[in-house]
Amino acid sequence: MKVTQIYAYPIKALRPMPLDTARLTKQGLEHDRRFMLLKVREDGSFQNVQIIYFPECARLFQAIDGDDIVVTHRPAETATQNQGPDPKLRVPLRPDTAGLGTVDIQLFGADTRAYRMGAEPYDRWFSTCLGYEVILVYIGDGRRRILAHSPRQEAEAEAERERANTNTAPTTTTTTTSSSSFSWLSSITSYVTGRPQKPTESEEDDDDWLTFNEAAPYLVASQASLHDVSSRLPPGETVDMMRFRPNIVVDGDEVTCWEEDYWGELLVSPRSSDSGGGGDDDGSKQEIDDSSDSNSNSSRNRTCRLALTANCGRCNSINIDYETGRMAEGEAGTVLKKLMRDRRVDAGDKWSPIFGRYAHLLPAQQRDAVRTTTVDHQDTSIGAVISVGDEVKVTRRNAERTVWRWPKT
C-alpha cells in the first residue's frame, strides 16, 4: 500500500492544494488550515465559511509560492463572473499579528480567538470574488481543544475498559486523566503502572489542539473506497477525491473498499526504491521545501505513525461539483443519498454515511511504551516528511468499528 495523493488546505474551504511532499506536525500538514473566511451577516455577526454552505469556494485555487499563499479566482463559465481587483491575491504564510484585531470563533464545538488579516487587500479581494462580504482570519497562536478521539483520550478510554473488564481498581486514588496539560502518553503510563506521571515542560507545550481542522489534524481515505463510490454512478461517470477533502490518500493492489473502517494505526515510510513516483505527475503538485530542516536528509525523519481514531461522517459537501462551484446535477448530485443506503455504519453517527478516517500523528516511541512492541524504523514523527509513493503499512487493526462520540453542542 502506498500514499497516492496528499492535499493541504492553507485557507479552509478553498479548493484543495495537491502536494508531492509535505511535512507533518501534530496539528496537521504544515500550513494546513491556518486561515479561514467568515461571512459577515446583516447583524454584524459572523458565519464560518465551510464548503458545504459555500460551494463557490471550490473555484478559489490556492498554492504556496515562497512565503506566501497565492489565491486565484477561476469562476466557472456558468457562474457569476465576479473578479477581484487583482487577478491573484498573496497571503503571507506567517503574518505578523502585532496590531491585528481579533474575533472569537466556534468551530465544531471548540472555541478560539483568531486574528483579522484586514480589509485591504484581503477582505475586499475575497468579498469581490464571492459577491458577499467576508473577512479573512488567521489562527496565529490560537488553539482549539480536541473534544474527543485524540490518541490520549482513546488510550484513556481503552485503559478504563480494560480495568472494568478485569475488575481491577487502580493502585492509587490520584490519576492524571482529567488534566488536559498531561500528554496522552503520561496519562496512559499512569494507568498502566498505577503511578501518576508529572508532565515535562515539552509535554505541556505539545498538548492536543487543533487549528481550523474540524475534528482532527488529518483525514485519511482510500482510493479503493472511492472506486466503490464511483461504481454507484452511471457508466463513464466518476467521483473526484477532492469532494471528500482528505489529507492523505492511500491505495494498493490488495486494498479492498471500506477496509479502512478497521484501521487503527498506520506506519508510513519511504518507498524502497527512489525510482517510480507512486502516481501520475501532471506538474500541478507542489512540494513543501524541508531543506532548512537539519534532519531532512535523514531516513529517520521520513517515517511516521498515524493513529486512526474515528470515522468521518459525511454531509452534502460530497455532492459539490468542483468544476462549477455548485451542487452537482443529475446522478453526480446524489452521492450522499447513494452512500446512505449502506454506509451508515457508525452507531454514534447513525444518520451520516462514513467515508474516511480521522487521524492523529503519534509521538515517537509511543508504540514501544504502550504496546510493548517494536518498529523497525527509528523516527522522530513530529516534523517527519511524507511523499507520494511512500509505503504504508497497517500496524494495528481494530476488531470492531470505532463509534463516534463527539460531545453535542
What does this structure look like?
It is a single chain. 15% of the residues lie in helices and 27% in strands. It is of the alpha+beta class. Strands 1, 2, 3, 12, 13, 14, 15, 16, 19, 20 and 21 form an 11-stranded mixed β-sheet that branches. A 5-stranded antiparallel β-sheet has the order 5-4-11-10-9. A hairpin with a 5-residue loop joins strand 4 (35-40) and strand 5 (46-48). Helix 2 (151-166) packs parallel to helix 3. It starts with a strand and ends in a 12-residue tail after the last strand.
Q: Strands, helices and their partners?
A:
Blueprint (H helix, E strand, L loop, with lengths): L1 E7 L8 E9 L2 E2 L5 E6 L5 E3 L11 E6 L2 E6 L14 E5 L9 E6 L2 E7 L2 H12 L3 E5 L12 H16 L17 H10 L7 H5 L12 E5 H8 L17 E4 L11 E7 L16 E2 L16 E10 L6 E2 L4 E2 L7 H6 L13 E8 L4 H6 L13 E3 L3 E7 L12
Parallel strand pairs: 2-15, 12-13
Antiparallel strand pairs: 1-2, 1-13, 2-3, 2-20, 4-5, 4-11, 6-7, 7-8, 9-10, 10-11, 12-19, 14-16, 14-21, 16-19, 17-18
Helix pairs in contact: 2-3
- How many β-strands, per DSSP? 21
Strand content: 25-35%
Oligomer: single chain
The biggest beta sheet is recorded as:
11 strands, mixed
Mean pLDDT value = 82
Estimate the helix proportion, in percent: 10-25%
Tell me the series of helices and strands, N- to C-terminal. Answer: EEEEEEEEEEHEHHHEHEEEEEEHEHEE
Which class best fits the helix and strand makeup?
Answer: alpha+beta
Radius of gyration: 22 Å
Q: What characteristic shape results from the CA principal axes?
A: globular
Cα separation of the termini: 38 Å
Q: Low-confidence segments, ≥5 residues, pLDDT <50?
A: 172-205, 274-283, 289-300, 366-380
Alpha plus pi helix count? 7
Biased composition (Basic and acidic residues): 151-164
Pfam families: MOSC, MOSC_N
Region (Disordered): 150-181, 269-300
Protein name: MOSC domain-containing protein
